[in-house]
Every structure is written in structure tokens, then in C-alpha cells.
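Budget justification, computational time. The allocation requested in the original proposal was used primarily to generate C-alpha cells for proteins on the priority list. As evidence of use, we reproduce two of the resulting records. The first is shown immediately below.
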Amino acid sequence: MYKVFINEVPVFFTEINTSLTSFKSVLYQELDCQFLFHEISKNPEVKINVICDNLENDWLNFLLNFQVREAAGGVVKNKAKDLLWIYRFDKWDLPKGHIEKGESKNVAAIREVEEECNVSGLVIDKELQTTYHVFEHKGNKVMKVTYWFLMHTTIESQTLVPQTEEGITAVCFKNSNDSLKCLSNTYGNIKLLMEEIL
């Protein structure tokens, strides 16, 4: 299954005969991207399940409708098992950013977390699920593919500094209860990712 968020509307791509409760189903063969975007703009509460004959092929064909940009980021825990959050554009988010040419996903993830939060001593524990979301940039539809890693920092006490030039206004570690509260003001793909963690 592939789960993509288009303007915060969940659009899931599943194998044929898979039905999801509360989702509007459409066959991939009958999917018209312009119509899909129109439906989403008209009804932002809709949830869409795209049923595929061949999930991998249909997903790759769907990606041809977008400029694909790859990013990497981290879900970071400190020694107290608190989670690292950033506050950007009036929402709670997780640190992530563009993968540079020739850079591996895991190296990019550590670099972006370090740059956005001024945190160091990062060690990757495991790779998490990949998230997908669509946005418009200069009239183009962009598919952001983000590779996520669970990390921890080995340094007990450090001064976190938000990377303000990236629009980040706050950086902090939050315990599980406070992290759950962040989910009420974050993005769909972050909620999806945090289902694995919280």
C-alpha cells in the first residue's frame, strides 16, 4: 500500500479487492489526475482509495504526473525517550530536508536534523516508513518523498537552536503525552509516521 497526502487529503493506493471503510474507492484505470485534484479541492474531507491491478506499476505511473523531490529526516529521541519536534509555519513538524546530489538517505537525514535543530551525537537506530505528500510550487505539482529514520542522541544536555532561515521558530524535546498533543496540529504524513512511535 502507498499512502499519499494531497492537500492533507489521504489517497491510498491498494491492491485490487482491497476496500477501506470510509474511503471513496476508484479504480486506477479510471483515475483522472485532474479530476482527482478537483474532487479534493471541492471536498477536503474526502478520503480516497485507489484500487490497483498492479500496485507497483500503477504507483510508478502515478508518479509521472509530478516533479519528484526526495528528502530525509529523523524521529529523534533523547536519553529520557523524549521526542524532538520543530515548530514551522504554525504547525508542529519533524526535522527533514532535501537530499543533496551524491548523498545517501541516512547521511542526509542526520545532516538535516543537525542543521535544523543544532542537535549532535546522532545515531540511527532503524529506517522507518517512507511518507509521500503533494504540494504546488511555481505552478508545478510536486511529490515529496521523505525517507525517515528513528534516531537517538548520545549527548545528554545540549542547546537546541532553530534554523530560522528555514522558517523554524522553535525546537524542543517533548515527552509522550506532549507529543500526542502535537498531533492535533501537524500534517497527515507526520501523524501516519508517529503511529509507529507513540
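The second record produced under the same allocation is shown here.
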Amino acid sequence: MMKFVVMMIFMVPLSFAKKSFWINQCVYMFMVFMFSGMMSMGWEYVNISYFWGVDLLSYIMILLSLWICSLMIMASMGIYSSSYFSNLFLFTLLILLISLFCTFASMNLLVFYLFFEFSLIPTLVLIIGWGYQPERIQAGVYLLFYTLVASLPMMVSIFYYYYNIGSLDFFFFYNDVGFFMFYVCMTMVFLVKMPMYFVHLWLPKAHVEAPVSGSMILAGVMLKLGGYGMMRMMQIMIPVAVKVNIVFVVVGLVGGFYVSLICLRQSDVKALIAYSSVAHMGLALGGIMTLNYWGLSGALAMMVAHGLCSSGLFCLANISYERLGSRSLYLNKGLINLMPSMSLWWFLLSSSNMAAPPSLNLLGEIMLINSLVSWSVLCMIFLSLISFFSAAYSLFLYAYSQHGKIFSGLYSFSMGTVREYLLLFMHWFPLNVLILKGDFLTLWS
């Protein structure tokens, strides 16, 4: 694992080299292919070097991070063509990738916590440095304070755990801590990061103000940090979790339903996609909190699927924004008349967002429905509502943006570039092909 960290550190001069924008993207892709050869098929850590190693959960999350980061460069043509500090952008992206890699590959709780919090800084720089609107400062403050308020109690609980157990290695974790305050302090930071309903207000603001690369990394990887942390931490808090988790399952499902209704009232394309993330991650939260095998596997499938699908939708929103100069659904109308090829991608990614076959979202939802209904039959009520309304707002997004009367004069008649179609294909293809090998998500327990 250390060889990848060293490789990324040695990429720092490449970030500042002249005319190296696309070379960086090629190197990221090369890293994806290198890392894909290190497959881990179980809960045991392999490829251990220093305090880094991968098991199946880490492997999938790191591969997703590398893939999304390479696509972020491909999506950021606007930064490259305008020469708006493009080298600094590449450097920020590299630092973000290093922090995510070290977070997911860490086998020690304190190292995990340090890089988990450090990943906030480059994300903040992306939003404030390359965001579109003047409100990006406020969005950055929201992101910073939501995370900081929740993260400091976790640091104290880590010290407490070390004082009592004597080790912070994941290998030595066992369910020994059995009081409520420790549970709250340890999990709150992950609930904010997912984000759970009630602590989700930073997410729509951050998405709306962020550049396309910021939205992609937030939706594609940063939200997954919360789910990943939950999966790691739940095993030390089982005595409390079996009594308390019902609260979070209820909040996740009811909140997912409320947010689905909020999606139907959005006029901003990016805000609609951002709120849909809260609904999907509410389902994943419910699956993790049931503490059963189906729930964990389903949450993992949902996180991978959502990372690819939501990131692709943000790319589509940015493609329209670059041509029209607005994200309003009232102005983004009738695009099927001007860009029919792009409408196909709107349809494919919108249908994946509503868990239509053969997308990985469908596999995730089936597994989560199994998990939650076996936990309590009453979950079926809100699961059915969330499934129905996710179809409703996905169709609303597609129909409202593609059909209707064109606002002539506001749109440049560009049919899209090869780069844009390749970018969308590289989101959609793994999303719909991974379901053929869905059993890899169930090999860990």
C-alpha cells in the first residue's frame, strides 16, 4: 500500500508542470488499473505495509475514489481552458486523493480519524476557490462547522477507548464499550458526513456552490466516508446499538421520505440531485443500523451505486450549466430538441437513480429492503414510499429538463464533445456492469 502513497506524493511536481492537465488524468487512470490488481476478497487485510492495508470494504472504496478523482479532471475542462489556477486545482485534487486513500486504507482508528478530518480541508479549498456563486463562503462555513462540531467528541471517545482497551487497531476491536454517551460521540461525525436527515443542511449548500469537481467528489466519495466509518465502528458498540439503533433507522427512513418530497419542489437541478443523495444515504443508514449481513452488504452496494450515479448526474447538470449559464429547471427546458444524444444520457442516469434494472442501485435497494423488512415489517411503509417518490423525482428531473418549450436565444447550439460523452459513459458503464458480478459485495462478513 505504501507504494501508492509514495506514487501520489511524487505526483506533486507533475501537478505544477506546464501543460500537464491531461497527463495527470492518464496517471490517475493508470493508478486505477494498478490498484485493481490488488483485489481483496474477504474481511482479512492483505497487502499490509506500515499501518495501511486493504480488505474488501477498503478496496472497493479506494477504487471508487481513484475512479471518481480521474473523472473529476476530465469533467473540469472549464478550469483547464480558462487557465484559472489549473495547476493549483490539480494539486488540491491530489491532496484530497491522498487523504481519502489513507483514510480508507488505514488499519488504525487514530490514523483513520486524522485523515478523515484532513479530507475536509482540500474539499473546502475546492468549494471556496473554484465555486460559482458568491454564497460559496457560506457553504464552506456550513461544511466546516457541521463537521467540526461533530468530530471533536469523536476524538475524545477515541482517547477513552484507548485508555480502556489499550489498542486502536481495527484487528483488536471487540464489543466492549456499552454506554450511550460513547455511542453518540463516536457515531455523530459519521451521521453528519453521510448525511442523516436533521444534520443534512450543509450538503445542498455545498453542492450548489461547488464546482463540478467538488460536487462529484462530495457525492461520489465524501458521503461514503460516513457509511464506511459506521461499518467499522458498529462492531465495538453492539451492546448499545441493539437498543438505540431503532431511532436512527426511523430517522433514516422517515427523513428519506421527507427529502424525496422536498426533491419534487426543487427548481435548481443541482439542489434536486443533492437532496436525492440524502434520501439514498438514508436507506443505506437504515441498512447499516439493522446490524445484519444483508444490511451491510446492501449499504455497500448502495454506496458504490450512488457514488457513480450521482456523480454522473452532476456532470450532466454541469454540461447544461456551461452552455446555458443557469441551473434553473425553468430555463433548462426542451433540451431533447437541441441535444438528443445528451438526452439519452439524461435518461440512462435518471433511470439508474430510480433503481431501474440493470443498475447496481437496484441490487442495493433489493438487499436493503430484505434487511429492513426482516428487521421490522413496519419499515415496508416508508420503503415503498421512498421507492415510489425516488421514481417520481427522477422522472420529474428528466421530463422537466428534456421536454417543453425551448428558451431560444439563451442556448448555444453545441451537440456535446467526445470528452463529455466519454465522461458520462465512464460513469454509466461500471454502474450497470457491476451488477453482473454482484456477489463480490457479499463475500465479506
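A brief technical remark on that second record: The mean pLDDT is 90.
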